[in-house]
Amino acid sequence: MKIIAIETSHDDTSVVLYEDKKVLLDLSLTQTEFHKTFGGTVPEYAARKHSDALGEILEKLKKEDLSDVDHIAYTKEPGLIGSLQMGRLFAYGLSFALDIPIYPINHMYAHIFAVSFEYDIEYPAIALVASGGHTQLWKVDSPNEIKLLGQTRDDAAGEVFDKVSRKLKLGFPGGPAIQNKALESNNPVDFKIQLTNDYDFSFSGYKTKVINYIHNLEQKGITLPVANIASGFQNTIVKILVDKTKMAVEEFNPKSVILGGGVAANDLLREEMKLAFGNKALIPSKKYTTDNAAMIAVRSHIVNGDK
Ligand code: KG4
Ligand code: ZN
Prior knowledge:
Blueprint: E1 2-7, E2 12-19, E3 22-26, E4 29-30, H1 32-36, H2 43-61, E5 71-77, H3 81-98, E6 102-106, H4 107-113, E7 125-130, E8 135-142, E9 145-151, H5 157-167, H6 174-182, H7 204-219, H8 226-252, E10 256-260, H9 267-277, E11 281-282, H10 293-304
Parallel strand pairs: 1-5, 5-6, 7-10, 10-11
Antiparallel strand pairs: 1-2, 2-3, 2-4, 7-8, 8-9
Helix pairs in contact: 2-3, 4-10, 5-6, 5-7, 5-8, 6-8, 7-8, 8-9
This protein binds 5'-O-[(R)-(carboxyoxy)(hydroxy)phosphoryl]adenosine and zinc ion.
């Protein structure tokens, strides 16, 4: 099964040529450096950059033998509307030119199934997907039976990493910046967690706690213990993510516990998930955690492979 997959939901223009759980060719271009100047993705610029990048990628694709590609898969939703639209139009153009079918793929389901490159998912599974835009717990009974258990009521996990990082002047994207700074910590700040008894997440209160803590020290003229704040904040978010997943594992006793989304690149989260769920924990290589078209391809292979 050979697939061209396109993922343009956010700030990466990712196009891959895929065959049977292998990426044959990766033509992805990232915009992260460009958006750094603004401290976050600017949707209007992102869409324009996708348009330019897709033009470049098309020139490279033209040099490939695409005669045996079975279908096109693209991210339909969720994501930035202008960015998604660029990918969709590109996908339709390719489908028309190559005269092959086109399938829309849900970005969140692709994050869940990104582990399929390296693991066979055993069902039922629980999946934790944490990214810049979403934090969700899913119950996955089969590739086509996916039920949302809970999600964030306010900010997403990645989003609070980005916001706290900006406040600590550590840069964008915040996740890797905070993780690196936390390595220097010797006494992490304890931001006291209160876990609710449901599957929803709420992170904005912790973001405010951290920001208030920073303002308080600044007003007193005390030098910020940046590494200890970064580490304490990281501990908080990771503990909430893992504890909520534990609740779902206790209730549903799944055979696999899947981790996905950009925040899944976090080393502490990866370690804690392994510790909590042992062999059941399916943790993808970091290259499959952040947005990429490979996960769109593998998800499409799994659900559209027989069509
Ligand atoms: O899934 P993703 O690539 O894009 C979205 O669909 O949002 O996730 C990006 C998010 C960003 O908020 C980024 O700060 C976060 O993932 N992230 C991390 C790490 N690497 C990326 N968060 C915590 N620790 C990391 N190492
Ligand atoms: Zn994503």
